[in-house]
């Protein structure tokens, strides 16, 4: 369902769009560090009059539990006086809310301070910052996410493990159904709604497949500019969650929601075109891989470990990254090799690209895209050579990624050259927020601990 480009959508076009659809309410959205949609719902008249709104700046800088750091470097960036951000809508992001009773639109907003500067720790600002670095070099980054998620039975008790939902047959999946058409058809009524919603929202989703896990699905997006794709992933997550609840089930993007089943990833295909010629700089004129192609891989190899707190942002994220679980354990690279963390799919020279397979489905799409592009950018500008291509089973190699959130945060704090690309303020706020999330998790005693330690130690 490819639609017209929104790259030149103006405020005048936005007004016409709202009028044509007789919109009466606007959901003014701001993605926070977690990827949660924060903001306000305004009457159409109020939105048109103000064309913007204000929110406390800490709204985009809280943890998944809704907590804030109580002290420390966080408040060197965010004022303890709780200043306002000035939010401005991006007209190109306007979408209808297809499940709303009254005609309602949703618009993503950018965050500015009182002087008109972008708030540096807002996720959308970070991705804009990295894209601007590419533009300054005369490059256009192009990405295409593949997003995995699970459908699970409705679960209102967090102490009870998740289970696959029942499909049209009245039975829940109990075995692996990778690429099964019939297994997808079990949930036809749900996916009819999902595709209908996506069409009404003009989301450029491509194929839907059943992944390996019981109730695990994958949706692919057409390639485009990173900011547009991050917006579309952000919208899609809201959409599929809403559709699932209307069919008495949940959709979850947790990295590892069900024990014994594979985790969910957000694989990101990425390439770069020349801003003048439009040619893929990963290929030479004779069709062979370019130096930029190899340097980009070198950058991913060097910096992915330090970016893991951005690619795998929760304690649960690291349960996915285990040997022989369809998730990578190292930063090896290879051609048409799904055991590596960095894969080069078979493609024509014009479509040559690199797939980052490390990123979890639970990652904030704005942050994940900014981070993977930052790795590749540093690889090219610093001419980092990759290791030799892995032509075998990368699972036979050593772990090369941090094994916990605490270790990942320490590595991110130490990667000062990444700070320069992503922004020092963002890294400070992000790591401080993740520290309090980790501290909250450590207060919880798990069933494993009660089962194995209660009477044995």
From TrEMBL:
GO terms for biological process: glutamine biosynthetic process; polyamine catabolic process. PROSITE patterns: GLNA_ATP (PS00181), GS_CATALYTIC (PS51987). Residues 123-457 form the GS catalytic domain. Its cofactor is Mg(2+). GO terms for molecular function: ATP binding; glutamine synthetase activity. Keywords: ATP-binding, Ligase, Magnesium, Nucleotide-binding. Belongs to the glutamine synthetase family. This is L-glutamine synthetase. It comes from Sphaerotilus hippei. The lineage of its organism: Bacteria, Pseudomonadati, Pseudomonadota, Betaproteobacteria, Burkholderiales.
């Amino acid at each position: 369902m490819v639609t017209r480009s929104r790259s030149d959508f103006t405020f005048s076009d936005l007004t016409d769009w709202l009028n044509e659809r007789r919109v009466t309410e606007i959901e003014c959205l701001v993605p926070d560090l977690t990827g949660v949609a924060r903001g306000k719902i305004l009457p159409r008249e109020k939105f048109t009059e103000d064309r913007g709104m204000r929110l406390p700046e800490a709204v985009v800088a809280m943890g998944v539990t809704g907590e804030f750091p109580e002290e420390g470097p966080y408040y060197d960036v965010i004022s303890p006086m709780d200043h306002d951000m000035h939010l401005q809508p991006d007209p190109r992001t306007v979408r209808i809310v297809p499940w709303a009773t009254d005609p309602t639109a949703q618009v993503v907003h950018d965050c500015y301070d009182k002087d008109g500067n972008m708030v540096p720790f807002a996720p959308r600002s970070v991705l804009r910052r990295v894209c601007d670095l590419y533009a300054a070099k005369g490059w256009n980054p192009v990405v295409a996410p593949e997003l995995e998620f699970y459908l699970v039975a409705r679960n209102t008790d967090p102490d009870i493990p998740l289970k696959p939902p029942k499909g049209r047959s009245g039975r829940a999946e109990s075995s692996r159904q990778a690429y099964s058409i019939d297994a997808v058809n079990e949930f036809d009524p749900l996916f009819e709604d999902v595709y209908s919603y996506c069409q009404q929202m003009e989301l450029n989703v491509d194929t839907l497949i059943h992944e390996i896990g019981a109730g695990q699905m994958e949706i692919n997006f057409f390639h485009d500019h990173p900011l547009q794709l991050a917006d579309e992933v952000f919208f899609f997550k809201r959409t599929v969650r809403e559709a699932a609840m209307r069919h008495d089930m949940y959709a979850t993007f947790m990295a590892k929601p069900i024990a014994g089943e594979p985790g969910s990833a957000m694989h990101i295909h990425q390439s770069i075109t020349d801003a003048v010629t439009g040619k893929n700089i990963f290929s030479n004129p004779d069709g062979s891989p370019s130096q930029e192609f190899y340097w980009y891989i070198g950058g991913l190899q060097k910096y992915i470990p330090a970016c893991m707190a951005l690619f795998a942002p929760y304690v649960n994220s690291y349960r996915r990254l285990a040997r022989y679980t369809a998730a990578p354990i190292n930063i090896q690279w290879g051609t048409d090799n799904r055991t590596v963390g960095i894969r080069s799919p078979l493609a024509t020279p014009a479509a040559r690209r690199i797939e980052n397979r490390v990123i979890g489905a639970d990652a904030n799409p704005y942050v994940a895209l900014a981070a993977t592009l930052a790795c590749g950018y540093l690889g090219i500008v610093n001419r980092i050579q990759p290791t030799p291509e892995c032509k075998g089973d990368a699972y036979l190699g050593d772990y090369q990624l941090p094994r916990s959130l605490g270790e990942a945060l320490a590595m991110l704090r130490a990667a000062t050259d990444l700070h320069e690309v992503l922004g020092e303020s963002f890294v400070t706020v992000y790591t401080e927020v993740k520290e309090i999330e980790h501290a909250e998790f450590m207060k919880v005693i798990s069933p494993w601990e009660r089962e194995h330690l209660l009477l044995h130690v």
